Amino acid sequence: MDRIDEKILQTLSANGRISNLELADRVGLSPSACLRRVQELERNGTITGYRAVLNPEATGVGFVAYVTVGLSEHSKAAQEGFERAMAPLPEVRECHNITGAVEYLLRVESRDLTSYKRFHTEQLGVLPQVRQITTHVVMGSPKDERA
């Protein structure tokens, strides 16, 4: 990984749909050399995919929260069970195993507070692995660089 690779990654992070020709121009390479570098970054797993950034309002998301979850026991089985339970839930957009007083941080998106309450009560709150749930409602996002 050199400065050119870093610039390629920075540029693609900001705009994954940029043409190879424009990318090559921005990073100071010929188009063929730039394409080879991007393909190598994909092949070696540095670039794992490309995503569309969605407008929450256009997709019906009016409520976003970060939710911390403490497990009832500190075991591999509890973690694996919790992670399996999170995987199919469309409201859970991110699930992170973290350090500290609790084990997980979730980014949860739903239509509104009522639908979040239903998720909290009927899906998250009934899991046997869950001991503690704390919800932090997002009031606004002045900086969000997730792709």
Task: Walk me through what this model shows.
The chain is 38% helix and 20% strand. It is α+β, with helices and mostly antiparallel strands. The chain folds into 2 domains: 3-43, Orthogonal Bundle (Arc Repressor Mutant, subunit A), CATH 1.10.10; 63-137, 2-Layer Sandwich (Alpha-Beta Plaits). It has a 4-stranded antiparallel sheet. Strand 2 (92-97) and strand 3 form a beta hairpin. Helix 2 crosses helix 3. The two termini are 21 Å apart. The mean pLDDT is 96.
Summarize this, please?
The chain has 147 residues and is of the alpha+beta class.
* CATH class label of the largest domain: Alpha Beta
Helix coverage percent:
25-40%
Which stretches are poorly predicted, pLDDT < 50 over at least 5 residues?
none
Amino-to-carboxy terminus distance:
21 Å
| Radius of gyration over C-alpha positions, nearest whole angstrom | 20 Å
CATH-assigned homologous superfamily of the largest domain:
Lrp/AsnC effector binding domain/regulation of amino acid metabolism (RAM) domain
Question: In percent terms, what proportion of residues is strand?
Answer: 15-25%
Mean pLDDT comes to 96
Helical element count?
5
Q: What structural class is derived from the secondary structure elements?
A: alpha+beta
CATH architecture of the largest domain: 2-Layer Sandwich
CATH fold category name of the largest domain? Alpha-Beta Plaits
The 3D shape can be described as elongated
Count of separate structural domains:
2
**Order of helical and strand elements:** HHHEHEEHE
Main β sheet profile: 4 strands, antiparallel
Order of strands, widest sheet: 2-3-1-4
